[in-house]
Specification:
Blueprint (H helix, E strand, L loop, with lengths): L11 E5 L2 E6 L16 E6 L1 H11 L4 E7 L3 H12 L2 E7 L9 E7 L5 E6 L13 H5 L3 E5 L11 H10 L3 E5 L10 H8 L7 E5 H8 L3 H10 L4 E5 L5 E4 L4 E4 L12 H14 L4 H16 L11 H8 L3
Parallel strand pairs: 1-4, 1-8, 2-6, 4-5, 8-9, 9-10, 10-11
Antiparallel strand pairs: 2-3, 6-7, 11-12, 12-13
Length: 320
């Protein structure tokens, strides 16, 4: 759909990275060097933006995704799967021959609920300001900038994009993810601090807070608020989640489920939070609904692109 004029209003526009994920079912541990073990693989949509857009669409939000891909079979598959889930994809195609593929991630899940990942950013590196249709941003309620570190081509435009959205009365969200390529250098951290004054909701986990601020969650979250961010939403994994502002801090416990497929769970949490916020839920219920989305996603065996539906999430969410 690249190049087409948007003709409808969206609930959420997600801007960022798209990956083709190769994820394992949980294994006990890595094999020894020069050894081989058997495991079961799942091929799925990936990337923070790709997962968030898929999850938003699956929950019933009118969703658009702005991204960059190649013109290869893998790119076509990822976009087709996103569109099957209901996300409208405004995808540019890179002209660099060496990057004409989507990002690719191999995600290894372990039986204790943890994971390890190997990633190649591919065409995501070429996502630039010219790929962003600013008129599309006027026709939404929430702009989500996801996959910051995987889309360096947008570093200079991030603040402009978010400020434009806010000037149109649109809520803005950012999920930076883990800085696997740049590390937590002063320059890398500054690329995030530069856009915090234009960020309504910053989605981070405890390790990312420490990477950004050098402090644990309690002090680190307030440093991010002091830098201009209005709300810090903290992913705490098995400990649930938190919403921190200068005026209050609310925590919500996780649902007790068996972790099977951890890949993309944080992105699904973000989608659940956006859904609950846009439907007028209070702070505690936004966190609880997002936790229910994450729990639904992490606790099932996925052999195809299956993201939580509203009906599935409500079954868990309504349990006392």
């Amino acid at each position: 759909m690249s190049g087409e004029e948007p003709v409808e209003r969206y609930d959420v526009v997600v801007i960022g990275d798209v990956f083709w994920d190769i994820a394992t079912m949980p294994i006990e541990d890595f094999p020894e060097r020069d050894r081989q073990i058997g495991c079961e693989f799942m091929l799925t949509i990936g990337g923070q933006a790709g997962n968030c857009a898929a999850a938003c669409a699956s929950l019933g939000l009118r969703t658009a995704l702005i991204c960059k891909t190649g013109d290869d079979m893998l790119s076509g598959w990822v976009l087709a799967e996103l569109q099957k889930l209901g996300a409208d994809c405004f995808a540019g195609v890179t002209e660099k021959e060496e990057l004409r593929r989507p990002g690719i991630t191999v995600s290894i899940a372990f039986e204790d609920g943890s994971r390890s990942m190997l990633s190649d950013r591919g065409a995501n590196l070429e996502l630039e300001e010219e790929d962003v249709n600013f008129e599309l941003l006027r026709k939404t309620r929430f702009v989500m900038r996801a996959g910051h570190w995987n889309t360096e081509g947008l570093f200079q435009a991030n603040e402009k994009i978010l400020r434009f959205a806010q000037s149109a009365g649109v809520y803005t969200g950012v999920d930076i993810g883990w800085s696997a390529y740049l590390g937590w250098t002063a320059h890398a951290r500054q690329t995030v601090f530069d856009l915090l004054s234009s960020t309504d909701f910053l989605f981070v986990n405890e390790a990312e807070i420490k990477g950004l601020s050098g402090k644990a969650e309690r002090g680190g979250a307030h440093d991010l608020l002091d830098a201009g961010c209005k709300n810090v939403i903290v992913h705490r994994g098995a400990d649930g989640s938190a919403w921190v502002t200068k005026d209050f801090k609310i925590s919500c416990p996780a649902f007790d489920v068996e972790p099977i497929s951890p890949t993309g769970v944080g992105d699904v949490f973000n989608a659940g939070f956006i859904y609950a916020f846009l439907t007028g839920q209070d702070a505690k219920e936004c966190l609880r609904f997002a936790n229910a989305c994450a729990a639904t996603h992490i606790s099932r065996k996925r052999r195809r692109n299956v993201f939580p539906t509203l009906t599935e999430v409500e079954k868990l969410y309504k349990k006392k």
